[in-house]
Amino acid sequence: MVYRRYGPLWYRTMDGRTRRAFWTSYAGFGLDAMDVQIYAFVLPVLLSAWGLSHSEAGLLTTVTLISSALGGWMGGLLADRFGRARMLTITIFCFAVATSLCGLARNVEELFVARALQGLGFGGEWAVGAVFIAEMASSKSRARVVGIVQSAWVVGWGLAAAVSAVTLATYGPDIGWRIAFIAASIPAIVLFAFRRKLTEPEMFVGGRRKTSWHHIFTGDVRRSTLLGCLLATGVHGGYWALATWWPTMLLAERGISLTGDSRYFVSLLAGAMGGYVFGAWSGDRAGRRTTLAVFALGGIAMVLAYAQFGASDRMLLFFSFPLGFVALGMFSVTGPVLSELFSTNVRGSGLGFCYNFGRGVAGLSPLLIGTSAGHIGIDLALSIAVGTAYGLVILAAALLPETRGRVLD
Questions:
Q1: pLDDT tens-digit readout, 355-391
Q2: Which class would CATH give 9-196+216-399?
């Protein structure tokens, strides 16, 4: 029965519980992006105000991603044991507190600790949220539902740029970056109150069985775990290299500020949103493997065109849209694939481990770029990192089974 008259068919056929799950997951993913991505926009200020080296700046991103691997794995494991909805209320609260601590840090050491705590909540939020919404969606539209939820990352990314620009312009660089972090934590506290009313997916309640977390490393499940880790490492490796160092590269090499010249950033965000939507649609229509391979090939081509072939500033603006399109679009397919590789009793553990193992390994990418930038330049270091990462995505797509339309047990 059609629940509402407006929106695409996959949305109109949702019942009230599924819609509540959809929007609370959407909001959580958006706040994840806003709170984490603020660092990239205030990084130029910290480089100057605190005299950070490129290695230290990369390390502050790396520690967040590595700790998010632990947070995501533990979040997924605990979600299998205690419930998806319960864990979502915990992750958003932890994330809000840690983001506030980032704004209160007095030195690099304190910011390092705050960013590590932020990573714990950040990793848990995505792992548990992806399983939660995947189990609520139907098998025919799972990629579209999960993909559109993940498109909230673009909204959060845009909000991070806006909040950073406003606070830095209003309060100046010395205090503005602190206010940006603290302001970003407030919506997460509001969402925490709403999440206390969530209920568990019927699939989880009906299929809940006590299975040890290390089941994902045994028998036939081991292959799914290994391939899931390979896919997640490639997807994250490419994205985090771009998200961390692209704004700094444009400023250092071209004198272009993403917040100062909004055309570049708006084009990038528009491409990212288009990539999420197209990837979600393509994952259900063309299949997961084909969609992943095409996006990864496009990502390699875009980075080479950007960084290695002397593109003019006008060409950089032109290519911002396709770069955002491919860099974010493959995430629309990654969530459904990782959800479909595992059974309900270990889905949180499996997805949480694979996705966040990839994020943890990929956390080394910003550090390696920062370390090598002084020797070979940011543009070349970035190209090597992104090309290697998306090569792993192509390999994973070739080895993974096609899971389109798979009914979750």
A1: 888 877 887 777 777 777 667 776 777 788 888 999 9
A2: mainly alpha
- Give pLDDT, residue 66: 81
Long-range contact pairs involving 5-13 (C-beta distance under 8 Å, separation at least 24): 8/144, 9/141, 10/138, 10/140, 10/141, 10/144, 10/145, 13/138
d(CA 57, CA 330): 27
Task: Give residues with Cβ within 8 angstroms of 175, minimum separation 6.
Answer: none
Is residue 303 a contact partner of residue 245, using CB atoms and an 8 Å limit? Answer: no
Has residue 237 got a pLDDT over 50? yes
What's the average model confidence in pLDDT over 287-313? 80
pLDDT score recorded for residue 1: 39
**Is the pLDDT assigned to residue 230 strictly greater than 90?**
yes
| DSSP string for residues in 206-274 | HH-----GGGGGSTTHHHHHHHHHHHHHHHHHHHHHHHHHHHHHIIIII---TTTSHHHHHHHHHHHHH
**In which region does residue 7 sit, left (phi positive, over 0), alpha (psi from -120 to 50) or beta (all else)?**
left
- Predicted TM-score (pTM) of the model is 0.76
Structure tokens at 72: 């995501």
Under a CB-based contact definition with an 8 Å cutoff, are residues 125 and 75 in contact?
Answer: yes
172 Ramachandran zone, left/alpha/beta (phi>0; psi -120 to 50): left
Decide if 288 contacts 333 (C-beta within 8 A).
yes
Largest CA distance in the chain: 62
Report pLDDT for 2: 42
Residue 220's CB is within 10 A of a number of other CB atoms, namely: 6
CB of 290 closer than 8 Å to CB of 403: no
What residues does each domain of the chain span? 9-196+216-399
